[in-house]
Amino acid sequence: xxxxxxxxxxxxxxxxxxxxxxxxxxxxxxxxxxxxxxxxxxxxxxxxxxxxxxxxxxxxxxxxxxxxxxxxxxxxxxxxxxxxxxxxxxxxxxxxxxxxxxxxxxxxxxxxxxxxxxxxxxxxxxxxxxxxxxxxxxxxxxxxxxxxxxxxxxxxxxxxxxxxxxxxxxxxxxxxxxxxxxxxxxxxxxxxx
Length: 193
Description:
InterPro entries: Spore_III_AF. With 193 residues, this protein is an alpha+beta fold. The protein has helices at 2-24, 31-55, 57-107, 163-180; strands at residues 111-122, 127-139, 187-191.
């Protein structure tokens, strides 16, 4: 900004000086040569910032490009680190759910499990706290066929439950509470169809 201000001041000063010289010069055959010299000086003053940019500006331009590329690189590194941390949190949560499924399958092999864990993860201190564990349980055994009544006057909305899953629910809850070191009220067991 100061360079532009200096250029404008120099240009205005030269225009005033050239006008003053033209006013005090005599009206004879030398006046056209004087106008030519003054015009050449004015053109030189107007071209001087362009020459300055070409000579010094190349260095300034390359410095600005380097500064900009470093700034972009630093910003992209910060973004990559944030994305890595978020990705690490998701990966940790997925691994925790997978391990929970494997532990349950080892101890209760007559069932299939799918876990969903809600937890807070701090990657800087490498700690986590589990807020809630949802376990979906499916019995692997073949279920009995229920009696089907066609054209009955009543529609039954009652669904028979798998008694074995209900009996094992407390065992599963106790096992998870002990293994994950959390309270039983954070564990929810659901029947999977």
